[in-house]
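To whoever picks this up:

The nightly regression suite flagged Large ribosomal subunit protein uL4 as changed. Nothing in the input moved, so I suspect the structure step. Input below, exactly as stored in the fixture:
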Amino acid sequence: MANVTVYNMEGKEVGTIELNDAVFGVEINEHLVHMAVVNQLANNRQGTQKAKTRSEVSGGGRKPWRQKGTGHARQGSTRAPQWTGGGMVFAPVPRDYSFKMNKKEKRAALKSALTSRVQANKLIVLDQLTMDAPKTKAMQNVLNSLNVNKALVVTKENDANVVLSARNIPDVKTALVNTINVYDVMKYNTVVLTKDAVAAIEEVYA
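Regenerated output under the current build:
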């Protein structure tokens, strides 16, 4: 099992914690991690893009000139794709981009993502993270003391003061144990977990 240093909010070492290999020490499956990221991005797509084909563009009901004798190429409509104002060939239509991943695949992908952060020394454990009031400066001081900037901060309980304190800091996102996902874990350089959050994650995913 991997031993990780536990820090306090001032950035000082206050102990160590042993991470469960069933969650933070699995064999990394890059294919599942990639698939989970693509899955989340695809499921977030609106799929509302739309353009009109020649049958949907208004006008063009009359043949612009007679078939023969004008010297021009034959034309049947001013709304054919080669005309300005005409319809689009193979126009995009609203569609659903989402696809399904199995639960076991999602769990394995998240474990792989967390393990990759542990192996890269990009996972930091805090003994606790509390704020007396919503103060962006206080949260920034915590991150500065830990020497991190682009971070995903994961807590067990929904602390409004912590969420509001981090909300205005660029490249910092807060999440609960039950809302973490592979995309966010891989997007942010560092994952900051509280000890309670580590225990909760191990309880759910071990």
